[in-house]
Specification:
Layout: H1 2-66, H2 76-80, E1 84-90, H3 99-111, E2 115-116, E3 125-132, E4 135-142, E5 161-167, E6 170-175, E7 184-191, E8 200-207, H4 214-288, H5 296-323, E9 333-336, H6 337-355, E10 358-360, E11 368-371, H7 373-392, E12 400-408, E13 411-417, H8 446-456, E14 460-465, E15 471-478
Length: about 475
C-alpha cells in the first residue's frame, strides 16, 4: 500500500514539475515574441522621428545658404511643411525680441549647428535656432503630427505601447498606450539621429497576464499529463506482467515440489504393503513347494506375483528418485531476508490491496543468511499467502500483516503474523503433516513443503499464536558469515 502511494506521489510530482517547466518555457517564448515585436515597432518609431527632425536641420541649412532678402517669403515654408508653425529671421544688426532665442543663437554660433531654444515641451511645440553669417533663423515646430498616422507602425488608440518624446526632464506623449500595475514591462530609449534636437524616443510596453499564450500552455499541460498517464499505464502493465510471471514461476515450483512430496509420501505409504505382499508370496511359495507336484501351477503363479510386486516397488522407488532434487543442485547464496520479504510483498501487492490489508513492518537492520534463494522465496511467499487467506475468514476487526526480521545470536528469525482467527490448540501438532489442512479445498502440502525446504537450508519453521490474536509463523535460519552480493 505504501509503495503504491509512493509511486502515485512520484508520478504526480513528475507531472507537476514537467507541466510547470514546460508552461514556464512557453510563457517565456511568448514574452520574448512580445518583446521582439515591441522593439521592432520602437525602432521604426525612432527611425521615423529621426527622419523628421533631420529635415528641420536641412530647412535651416537651406535658409542660411540662400539668405532670402524678403522676410515675407519665409512664411511660405509653412505651406510646404505644415508642421512648421512659423519661420523667424533676425536681420543683420537686428536683435531677437525673445531673450531665449538670443541665447540659443549664441550657443548655435559656438557649436556651429542649430540649437533648440529653451521652452516648454508639454505645449506641443519647440523652437530651433541657427546663427548664419550676420543674421539668424528660427523655426517654430509643432510636435503633433510630427509623424503622419499613415506612417505610424501602431494603432495610436488601441496599441498598448506608450511612446513619448523626452528632453531635459520634459515629456510629450505621442501615443498613450495601456499602462498596467501588474505584469511584465519592456522599455526602449534612444536619442534621435539629430544633434541639434536631442530628443529621447522613449517607448514602454506592458504585457498583462491575459496576453500570455494560455492556449499553448494548456495544450502542453494536457500533453504532459496524457503522456505520463500512458507511460504510467504501460509501466503498470509491464509490472503486472512481471509479477504474474514471477507468481507463475513460484506456483510451478510449488506444484513440482508438492508433487515430489506427494510422490515421496505415496512411495513411503505403498512400500510397506508391497514389501508385505512380497514376503507373503515368498512364504507361500516355500510352503507350496512342499505340496504334491500338482501344485506347480500355483507355485508358478505365486512366483509371478512376487516378480510383479518387486517390479512395483522398483517403479515407486524410481519415481521417488526422479522427483527428488539432485545433491548439490540448490546453490546456497548470501541473502538479505529483508530483500526477500520486499520481493514477496511486491508480488502479492495486488492481493494485499484487494483485501484491504495494512502491512506493518518496522525498519530493521539488514539480516543476511546463507540459503537457496528460490527456496526462501517460496517459503516467504507461502507464509504471506497463507496469512492473507487466513484473514479472509475474519469477518470483523482489523486486517493487518505484521512482519519483522531480527537476529537472535547466530540465527536469523523472520516472523509473519496476521490478525485472522488464529490456530486452535488441537491443530498445532498436526499443522505440518502432509495432506492436513484447515482450509476447505486445501491440499495440505504448502506448510509441509515449506518446513521441508526450511530444514534443507539448516533452519526450521514453527507456528504459534500471535500477540493480540491471529497466527504467527517464524522462519529460523543460520546467519551468513560472509557479505551478501
Amino acid at each position: 500500500m505504501q509503495r503504491s502511494w509512493t509511486s502515485r506521489l512520484g508520478w504526480t510530482a513528475a507531472g507537476l514539475v514537467l507541466s510547470l517547466l514546460g508552461a514556464w518555457l512557453i510563457a517565456q517564448r511568448g514574452l520574448e515574441a512580445q518583446r521582439t515585436a515591441f522593439e521592432t515597432d520602437a525602432r521604426i518609431v525612432h527611425r521615423l522621428l529621426s527622419q523628421q527632425v533631420v529635415q528641420h536641420d536641412a530647412v535651416l541649412s537651406t535658409l542660411a545658404l540662400l539668405e532670402p532678402e524678403r522676410t515675407e517669403a519665409l512664411p511660405r515654408l509653412s505651406a510646404i511643411h505644415p508642421r512648421l508653425l512659423s519661420v523667424l529671421a533676425r536681420a543683420p544688426g537686428g536683435a531677437w525680441a525673445d531673450a531665449a532665442l538670443a541665447r540659443a543663437e549664441s550657443t548655435s554660433r559656438t557649436s556651429g549647428r542649430a540649437v533648440m531654444a529653451e521652452g516648454d515641451l508639454a505645449s506641443g511645440r519647440y523652437t530651433l535656432v541657427l546663427g548664419a553669417g550676420d543674421g539668424a533663423y528660427a523655426l517654430v515646430i509643432a510636435l503633433k503630427g510630427l509623424v503622419p498616422d499613415a506612417d505610424w507602425p501602431m494603432h495610436r488608440a488601441s496599441s498598448p505601447v506608450r511612446v513619448a518624446l523626452e528632453w531635459k526632464g520634459q515629456s510629450l506623449p505621442l501615443q498613450a498606450g495601456r499602462p498596467l500595475d501588474r505584469g511584465w514591462r519592456f522599455d526602449f530609449d534612444k536619442v534621435v539621429a539629430a544633434e541639434s534636437q536631442p530628443f529621447h524616443a522613449a517607448a514602454t510596453r506592458w504585457v498583462g497576464w491575459g496576453e500570455l499564450p494560455w492556449l499553448g500552455m494548456a495544450a502542453w499541460v494536457v500533453a504532459v499529463l496524457t503522456g505520463l498517464a500512458l507511460l504510467a499505464h504501460a509501466l503498470r502493465l509491464r509490472e503486472a506482467r512481471q509479477r504474474a510471471e514471477a507468481l507463475l514461476r513460484l506456483g510451478q515450483l510449488g506444484r513440482l515440489n508438492a508433487m515430489g512430496e506427494f510422490a515421496a509420501g505415496l512411495a513411503h505409504e505403498l512400500n510397506q504393503p508391497l514389501t508385505a505382499v512380497l514376503a507373503s508370496t515368498q512364504a507361500a511359495q516355500r510352503l507350496l513347494a512342499d505340496e504334491p507336484p500338482a501344485l506347480d501351477t500355483a507355485r508358478e503363479a505365486m512366483g509371478r506375483a512376487g516378480a510383479q510386486a518387486r517390479r512395483a516397488a522398483e517403479v515407486l522407488a524410481r519415481l521417488r528418485r526422479g522427483l527428488e532434487p539432485p545433491a548439490g543442485a540448490a546453490a546456497s547464496l548470501s541473502l538479505d531476508l529483508g530483500a526477500c520479504l520486499r520481493e514477496a510483498l511486491h508480488l502479492l501487492q495486488p492481493e494485499i490491496d484487494r483485501r484491504g490489508v495494512a502491512v506493518r513492518w518496522p525498519a530493521n537492520e539488514a539480516v543476511v543468511v546463507r540459503a537457496d534463494p528460490v527456496a526462501i522465496d517460496q517459503i516467504v511467499h507461502n507464509l504471506i499467502a497463507n496469512a492473507l487467506q487466513a484473514m479472509d475468514r475474519q469477518a470483523d476487526g482489523p486486517r493487518e500483516l505484521r512482519l519483522s526480521v531480527r537476529r537472535e545470536g547466530d540465527r536469523a528469525v523472520l516472523d509473519v503474523a496476521d490478525t485472522g482467527p488464529g490456530l486452535p490448540p488441537d491443530v498445532l501438532p498436526r499443522l505440518f503433516e502432509p495432506f492436513f489442512s484447515t482450509r476447505e479445498g486445501g491440499l495440505g502440502l504448502g506448510l509441509t513443503l515449506s518446513e521441508s525446504l526450511a530444514q534443507a537450508q539448516g533452519g526450521r519453521l514453527s507456528a504459534g499464536a500471535a500477540p493480540g490474536g491471529g497466527a504467527l509463523f517464524s522462519l529460523n535460519l543460520p546467519i551468513a558469515t560472509d557479505t551478501p552480493p
